[in-house]
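To the team - NAP complex, inputs and output below.
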Amino acid sequence: MQRARVQLKSGTGIASAYAAAIAEAARFVGATAPNPPVGCAILDADGEILTVAAHHRAGAPHAEALALLQCEAAGSLSRAATAVITLEPCNHVGRTRPCTDALLASPIRDVWIGAGDPNPRVTGGGAARLCEAGLAVQVAPPDSPEGRDCLALIAPFTSFIRGLRPWITVKQALDAEGSMIPPAGARTFTAPLSLHLAHRLRRATDAIITGMGTVLADAPHFTVRHVADHADRRRIIAVLDRTGALPAAWRQEAQARGFRVATAPDLGGLMQLLLDEGVLWAMVEGGPRLLDILARASLWDDWLTIRHRPEGEDLVGIRARTAITPLRLVEGMPAAMTVEREAVCSPAS
Ligand SMILES: NC(=O)c1ccc[n+]([C@@H]2O[C@H](COP(=O)([O-])OP(=O)(O)OC[C@H]3O[C@@H](n4cnc5c(N)ncnc54)[C@H](OP(=O)(O)O)[C@@H]3O)[C@@H](O)[C@H]2O)c1
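Output:
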């Protein structure tokens, strides 16, 4: 991409603007599917942040459009000089007008972009259009802190939009003996902090993948209870069910709790139904047989292990395929993780 004139140097307002835009976008991870989460900060010519906005859900304004609207409402639009956006602005008409139009119609002349648009079907990128119109456009290097976080934000969307499959995060709780099976009469055995973490992860994801063994043993609710959920969120529960034996009563109860319940007889069918439903990020909450099947098929992107210790805090570990994992942005996740491949570009490439 062509590099053009830059008014603000990275390190003045840009680093904090990226941090603010990423944090705002991260608040809506799990609410935007099938769209990606996106954040935008608008700065004045001195690098002061005028406003920060995010895309809230499909059909709502894009982050750039909302940020410009907020500036207008606050009477600061004439001071807007720089936009810092976590994802390349769209240049096509979808449910909303192209964000490039909104930026070009504003006083903004400097644009910093955290990650390029991974959508292979969208031609004529927003960054190129802004460059051609004479704006200064910078894309964060993928191995910079901003680039990594912005790529992590859209890692599930990248996997989805390239038609691969949803991003798959496995959550596995182990007791002190290394067993996944809860004591008789219980559905869980982990500490309250681990439960909060699991519910934050549920909030961030669009679907839960489970197995028939877990449904029959636990009749799980799969609701977000320990943290506040997104408003009006309708998640999918996808059950691996080879024989069509899913109990009708459990399905009805799950639907009454606001879930859409779907079944598939094999992993291929399961992934396809999740793609068809617009699921970007799915979390696996299944028993040892389902986890073994997924591990053998190498069908996961990151693997969260919670080891319960009756004395002391649970130990949480993350094994990730690449450092570009959306788990980085879920509050309470351990910063350290075992990364199998140091990726400096998009995870699905
Ligand atoms: N600690 C944790 O993190 C955790 C999380 C969830 C659940 N659990 C516990 O796990 C236990 C249930 O575990 P589970 O292993 O019995 O059940 P599961 O892993 O939840 O389900 C097993 C799944 O594997 C399918 N399956 C089995 N063999 C297969 C094959 N060869 N090919 C394709 N699919 C196959 C089954 O389908 P069919 O039934 O149709 O054959 C079923 O959907 C419960 O006690 C639950 O409390 C623990």
